[in-house]
Amino acid sequence: MSNLSSKPYQIGYALTPKKEQTFIVPSLLSYASQNGVVLTKIDPTKPLIQQGPFDCILHKLYDSDWKQSLQDFASRNPNIPIIASPESIDILRNRISMLETVSKLKINNTGVPKQITITEVTGLENLKLNFPLIAKPLDADGSETSHKLHLIFDKDGLNNLTAPFVLQEFVNHGGVIFKVYVAGKYFRCVKRKSLPDISEENLVNLKGSLPFSQVSNLAAAGGGEGCKFEKTEMPPESLVKELVEGLKEELRLNLFNFDVIRDGKNKENYLVIDINYFPGYAKMPDFESVITDFLRDVVHKDINCGDN
Ligand SMILES: Nc1ncnc2c1ncn2[C@@H]1O[C@H](COP(=O)(O)OP(=O)(O)OP(=O)(O)O)[C@@H](O)[C@H]1O
Ligand SMILES: O=P(O)(O)O[C@H]1[C@H](OP(=O)(O)O)[C@@H](OP(=O)(O)O)[C@@H](O)[C@@H](O)[C@@H]1OP(=O)(O)O
Ligand SMILES: [Mg+2]
Ligand SMILES: [Mg+2]
Questions:
Q1: pLDDT tens across 179-213, in order?
Q2: One domain, residues 111 and 260
Q3: Residue 170 labelled as part of a binding site
Q4: For residues 9 and 2, what is the distance between their CA atoms, to the nearest angstrom?
Q5: Are 66 and 102 members of one domain?
Q6: Considering the domain boundaries, does residue 250 fall inside one?
Q7: Together in a domain, 141 and 272
Q8: Are residues 190 and 78 in the same domain?
Q9: Which residues bind Mg(2+) 1 (predicted)?
Q10: What is the CATH number of the domain that holds 212?
């Protein structure tokens, strides 16, 4: 349904240059404007209350000046939805609080890998975790370093890591990861290439650590591996739906994705390993209509955006 007969909805967006480049693309701008939604850039260095008027704010910025500007705007405009509240986003900026939300849900056949926080690099002798491990920076703040992870094969591999970080057990999962994109009422699960399994025989030959980043942005490999990728079954729709509904409510977020792997040792079990606020939607099929419908739902108050 279009609102072309009435005034278009004005959506103000405040994003990093990288996010703007990948998300505010011509195909989105034209689809949205044809359907009564206009996306306008906010200047985050100027007070938000002096810009607009807006029917909705969409943002992925974290600095304190911006948060203050948002708060001033929200107190003067309590009925204008803000996607999303900084409090909700902050839960996903720490890799421990991020996955605690999944544990709280207590959904059958779902969980998270065993993990602990390391704040100091001394005294790492008696870890109650099994190798191989993955070290992930504690802050998932979108910086390049926040995506720099290490596979750790043995005790020596724990040297030279920068605290604070999270040590998480590496779980064999057949080299395929499922990414579930959520945008309000909509969700979609897609397959991506992941790290390959590490067998116990191979682990004996692997020493120290191995840095890596953004594996799942690689295309699926061709040949034998590609074939296995194609044949990998998707997780049960009912399980994905339960996770989506549970996480939306627990996080009070509408715009996020999460990564799920199928435990190679217990194939009934699916583990959530990562949740991202406002991820790379442009990689999703039909992203222009999904995002436009979502923004219209937000302005219509057909979906709830936290306190606003
Ligand atoms: N516990 C684990 N067991 C097995 N593989 C894992 C585990 N944790 C992460 N991985 C692999 O490492 C990749 C990156 O991990 P993760 O998703 O936590 O990092 P990220 O930098 O937050 O990624 P994103 O780009 O999705 O934000 C995953 O896509 C998966 O391939
Ligand atoms: O575009 P952005 O800068 O927001 O990058 C996001 C990236 O999207 P991109 O792949 O289009 O870059 C996302 O990839 P998918 O999960 O969707 O594959 C994911 O890695 C987010 O964690 C990133 O957000 P960040 O954690 O860095 O803030
Ligand atoms: Mg991830
Ligand atoms: Mg992430």
A1: 999 999 999 999 999 999 999 988 989 899 999 87
A2: yes
A3: yes
A4: 11
A5: no
A6: yes
A7: yes
A8: no
A9: 259, 274
A10: 3.30.470.20
Residues with CB under 6 A from ligand 2: 18-19, 22, 140, 142, 179, 216-217, 257, 276, 279-280, 283
Q: Do 228 and 249 fall within a single domain?
A: yes
Smallest-distance ligand from the CA of 257: 2
- pLDDT higher than threshold 60 for residue 224: no
Q: How many Å apart are CA 90 and CA 82, to the nearest integer? A: 15
Establish whether residue 167 lines the binding site of ligand 1, counting it when its CB lies within 6 angstroms of any ligand atom.
no
Q: How far apart are the C-alpha atoms of 6 and 87, rounded to whole Å?
A: 34
Token pair 């720490």 is found at 94
So what's the ipTM on this one? 0.94
| DSSP code per residue over 44-105 | TTS-GGGS---SEEEE----HHHHHHHHHHHHH-TTS-EES-HHHHHHTTBHHHHHHHHHHH
CA of 302 to the centre of ligand 3 (A): 29
Query: CA 303 to CA 308: how far, in whole Å?
Result: 11
Q: What is the 49 CA–ligand 4 centroid distance (Å)?
A: 32
Q: Is residue 167 a contact partner of residue 134, using CB atoms and an 8 Å limit?
A: yes
